[in-house]
């Protein structure tokens, strides 16, 4: 169970998410066929430019586009700089399957599955009862203590930040997730933009 902890719902809200890698969900949306093939690098430098309050990525003088042909536009400068850094980090070949932020942004921009805000929220909440952090081993004791040491701070932060109870279990039975908890998390998720929900859904 411990190996799957980084894919839990609770950690997607945590402020230190940058520690965790993107899950394989990104490759579920844009299949490996689109990203596994290496392309010869055709540009020298990736830069950013502002356009009506949003930011574009330029490969030399060419605008970056998504797999569906949309202009690659992100809502803030920090994200644009991070994506440009990914592209500037490519050497002789463009390894698209290693460019996690670019793939995540492509998903947000193209929305290839045409998922609505309600769909994304439902998808995130679906995994709440099976979040790895809620399941503990009763034995051996040293493993249980390690789980408490590593996972309890995240659960405690989540409970205090969103004022909702989160139960854990040492059995195979689902932990009790109250309607109040689900409602509170739903309210929080509903306050996010589609960009925010996409990040939490596919992270």
Automatic annotation (TrEMBL):
| Signal sequence interval, chain numbering | none
Q: Which Gene3D superfamilies match?
A: ATP12 ATPase, ATP12-like
The family database entries (InterPro entries) matched by this protein are listed as:
ATP12_ATP_synth-F1-assembly, ATP12_ATP_synth-F1-assembly_N, ATP12_ortho_dom_sf
* UniProt subcellular location: Mitochondrion
Q: Which residues form a coiled coil?
A: none
Q: Which GO terms describe its biological process?
A: mitochondrial proton-transporting ATP synthase complex assembly
Q: Which UniProt keywords apply?
A: Chaperone, Mitochondrion, Transit peptide
Pfam (any one):
ATP12
Q: Which family does it belong to?
A: Belongs to the ATP12 family.
Q: What is this protein called?
A: ATP synthase mitochondrial F1 complex assembly factor 2
Natural source organism:
Octopus bimaculoides
The top of its lineage is:
Eukaryota, Metazoa, Spiralia, Lophotrochozoa, Mollusca
């Amino acid at each position: 169970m411990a190996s799957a902890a980084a894919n839990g719902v609770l950690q997607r809200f945590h402020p230190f998410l940058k520690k965790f890698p993107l899950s394989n969900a990104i490759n579920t949306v844009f299949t490996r066929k689109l990203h596994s093939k290496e392309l010869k690098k055709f540009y020298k430098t990736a830069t950013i430019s502002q356009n009506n309050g949003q930011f574009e990525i330029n490969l030399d003088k060419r605008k970056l586009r998504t797999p569906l042909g949309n202009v690659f536009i992100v809502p803030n400068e920090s994200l644009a700089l991070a994506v440009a850094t990914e592209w500037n980090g490519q050497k002789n070949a463009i390894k698209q399957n290693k460019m996690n932020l670019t793939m995540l942004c492509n998903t947000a921009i193209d929305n290839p599955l045409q998922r609505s805000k309600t769909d994304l929220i439902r998808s995130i909440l679906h995994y709440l009862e099976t979040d790895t952090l809620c399941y503990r081993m009763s034995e051996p004791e040293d493993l249980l203590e390690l789980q408490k040491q590593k996972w309890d701070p995240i659960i405690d932060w989540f409970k205090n930040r969103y004022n909702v109870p989160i139960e854990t279990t040492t059995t195979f039975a689902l932990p009790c997730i109250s309607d109040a908890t689900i409602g509170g998390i739903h309210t929080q998720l509903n306050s996010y933009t589609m960009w925010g929900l996409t990040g939490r859904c596919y992270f």
